[in-house]
Prior knowledge:
Layout: H1 8-15, H2 19-26, H3 34-47, H4 53-64, E1 72-79, H5 91-106, E2 109-116, H6 123-132, E3 135-140, E4 148-149, E5 158-162, E6 166-168, E7 172-176, H7 178-191, E8 197-202, H8 203-208, H9 212-220, E9 233-235, H10 244-253, E10 257-260, H11 264-270, E11 280-286, E12 294-297, H12 300-317, E13 328-331, E14 334-336, H13 344-361
Amino acid sequence: xxANRVTQKDIATAANVHPATVSLALKNDRSIPxxxxxxxxxxxxxxxxxxxxxxxxxxxYRMQGNNRAYRGVxxxxxxxxxxxxxxxxxxHYYNWxxxxxxQAVRHGFELQVVxxxxxxxKADRMASILKARNIQGVLLCPQPTPYAHLEFPWSDxxxxxxxxxLVAPRLHAVSTAHYQSIRLAFDVLHERGYKRIGxxxxxxxxxxxxxxxxxxxxxxxHKLSAxxxxxxxxxxxxxxxxxxxxxxxxxxxxxxAIISTHQILDxxxxxxxxxxxxxxxxxxxxPDTDSRLSGVLESSVQIGKVAIDFLVDMVYRxxxxxxxxxxxxxxxxxxxxxxxxxxxxxxxxxxxKGKAKAAAAS
Length: 362
């Protein structure tokens, strides 16, 4: 005979508490003392309790359908310890925030911007402010610099970050699929007949993307013949402030196409290199379609929405603290045609013309 499912009411009876206390404790709600939460979790584990997925889905649906303006508050936490860092100046980051903000409302939450300078405020003080606002979920904006460490009482919060700038602790993260973007741009260039495909990239940008940009490019270089391989324009370089460096590299190696970031077009034009007349240019991560650049359009708003979905689910599950197995969700972009590459039909026409000449000669 099949055993009956263990319910929260059964756990409440065994723990000699109200069923509502069990429900809150299993969600790690801070209104329940830590010792009580731990005791109820231990009883639930020994009794073999597992949540009913259908009931959980129904409860979530009912909460989302509530007509109250807001059911709770989530925090968009910005590390302002670097005075030169303004996340709103990054169109990518700001679009992530806009996507997160709109999706939070759909879940019944308000997303509040919270600035936190590690130089001016202790972590415990910041945590107490968040708790006073009844904030359990934290969406951590990218850090001012790569390889960042951030001390914080994470055990009290559900937390999700973006990208790779935070190396300690390792939290769940949502990111652009940088690796796939470089590969997509490379393949499009190759299909359109570009042979000498270069990479123009600052090391700092690559570090902020977890080293995925350079590694993806090098991984695709096997498609190039030995004579078409050129060293990447990479490292501690200032081509944005000194475009002549970019021109020197271009004149030395003569790439017929470049994969780079969306800022490169101004630098090329400043030194008289035209796209697509002199060189094909593809950006690995475009923030929007306003640019004339060809390249991969980052799904910025969608990335923010995915991050909120992940965070809200963590809040519902009562999942707090540093995860044992951090997950990174990579959201792929889509190709944007732009005007800095030869059109798709150009290679086809050239190939057809060559075949016609060969047929006439025979």
